[in-house]
């Protein structure tokens, strides 16, 4: 566990030398700390919070913030190492840095990392992680003693004000609806992260937490300051590592009139903001929680510092730090490999007898030596989530000067993906070229299985092979983030034998009591189905829907308003006798 040996240093300088004006840097007598480069944040007002989604971001309310300073970057390993050396700070190597084909482990997992060495370490100019809220405050107190400046963690109001920087869009760079711009402004789950996880762990974020439609060049924790700053000149306010702030967390929202946030030393959950490398970009208003006791530290949370008021004095150690940081950035970028582009415009043209011509746009990358063609193991594979090689077998390899191939599919249909190959690496798989053979209409009364879907929107289909006494199964499964309000739909073709009321039972679950999903026949609402964990388990016999006779498309829709993990395996309709 945590062991601090705070030796109040006798090396504290009562006289320090500062850079007073441009062009003059006085010598530093002792270099036992690094003063962080700071940015003056003007006083102002903004609307804090966000509508819908996470209740923790409500109510939207006006906040006025006094002038303050915020550190330009998250605190780095280089800075924190001065504190560790001076105070004898140690922490056992239990940091949660573990990742495999099931993803990053949760906050109770015991890993093997430490603040100065973990699985994602490569530079002392990465943000320091594997530390707690208590550690961050101890560092701020130590640096305050060293410098005479009152460093602290920012308040949550200061953090959101600084992150938004007088913008009102979802992100400080805009709304970015297609998630193609975020990679210029931060380190998130992206193409490089997807490729690295595919290669090292057989892990994919597709159909799980997702990734951006762009490439930021970094898979895990990155050196600070690699991306464009926000309008206040602050780097990595969104992405890279989430940042601890001095605020208590309440899942029911902001306690605008209360004093909940005053007692920081007793609240169960604390707040961290900004998102991190493991997830796609979250809006500037998104909140996350960190349990004061009982949760392990991880490689996805760090911190930055604040000071009340404005200042115009820059310490020489801050100048030296930025000089070395820029050198570390340049060296890293010069040696960082570029991702091989995935093949584009992949198409499937039918010939005869299950034969097709598969074609794609030739790569403009001269290093491509060949293309690998993968064929699905199932006619449903284009619906599946996860690492593509679990669902596709390599069919053939063609040379780089070819961009077509003749291929075959079984009667049940299927899909293809193409991967570019060079001497040093492969690309991510292309988008799918699909020949989908729709399943037969489902007769009702009867059971609709999730693999009967003819279309899925914003949700994958999970396949589980038969194992021991469990038969083969398919489920729709979704992890819904706090900030994600995208509607999920699954469409089925049904043949209803008789108009009337039907009893609906289902196999599924969700984190939340109340409305679960809706059923639609065309534009007519057939029923609103809720969930109660104590009642609903396949045969609750309490849900009723009205269906019209005939062949129709029946659509299931789900819209979650807060964090959730939900799943559905089947729906069963039984005619109710009048």
Average of the residue pLDDT scores? 91
Amount of helix: 10-25%
Q: Pick out the low-confidence regions.
A: 1-30
Task: Tell me the β content.
Answer: 25-35%
Q: Distance N terminus to C terminus? A: 67 Å
How would you characterize the largest beta sheet? 6 strands, mixed
Rg, nearest Å: 27 Å
Number of helices: 5
- What is the number of E strands? 32
Question: Could you outline the blueprint of secondary structure elements for this entry?
Answer:
Blueprint lengths: L17 E2 L18 E4 L2 E5 L12 E5 L2 E4 L5 H11 L11 E2 L2 E2 L28 H15 L8 H9 L26 H11 L40 E7 L20 E5 L13 E5 L9 E2 L3 E3 L5 E2 H20 L8 E7 L4 E7 L8 E7 L15 E8 L4 E5 L4 E9 L11 E4 L5 E3 L1 E4 L5 E3 L3 E4 L8 E8 L7 E9 L3 E10 L4 E8 L2 E8 L11 E5 L2 E9 L5 E12 L3
Parallel strand pairs: 8-11, 21-26
Antiparallel strand pairs: 1-13, 2-5, 3-4, 5-12, 6-7, 8-9, 9-10, 14-15, 15-18, 16-17, 16-19, 19-20, 22-32, 23-26, 24-25, 25-32, 26-31, 27-30, 27-32, 28-29, 28-31
